[in-house]
Amino acid sequence: MSLRYCVSCKTICDQNNTVISEELYRCSTCKKVLIYFGREEASISIDTILAEYDALHPYNPLKDFKGVVKDYENPPTNIAIIECEEILKHDPNNKEALRHLSKHFWVQKNIQKSLDYMNKLNQVNSDLSDDIVYYVRLLLIQKEYQSIIDLMKKYEDKITKFLFYHYLAISYLGLNLFNDALTYFYQAYYSCDDEGRKKKIKKMIRYLNSILDKSSP
User: Fold this and answer.
1) pTM of the entire structure?
2) Which end of the chain lies in a sparser environment, N or C, as judged by fewer CB atoms within 10 Å?
């Protein structure tokens, strides 16, 4: 049996918690009609599927931060970088220095070094509310999916419902935990206001339906 989704209970329903009434599949708990978007055959890899979905934002560091973060790509910032490194020698937990260096190395396309500074910023219990999307994008590029899940749980009340569900869905998909991914893609779909994005989410749900249908006995 294909997996269906209960909007009311916010859960995936299989044959164990589904009833058929009046020729409709209903949730055995709340008796409401279940949602099924169908399936879409996919023989491509999870990485390709995620790339097609685009993880919400393409990777373009110069475009992303030019005008938002001051001239991180320009030579004069070398002085600021040296100053930040000096500050960290005496104050390893200095939040502004860690943040500045992370953004600088992002623009230099040194993603791992950029991520290292953000990880340090997270470890010193800094409030990352303003940097959460940036941090998650670094983790996505490096495929650190479990770290994203941990971060979402930590900052659930600091991020929109859509982004919370969206990033959890991507992370569980990256970990090949397809049932969890399907649940969160459904929740992302119902908390999304953008019709273009909803079409992409629906396609992801169809991919997952296909994968799970094949794996079911």
Assistant:
1) 0.84
2) C
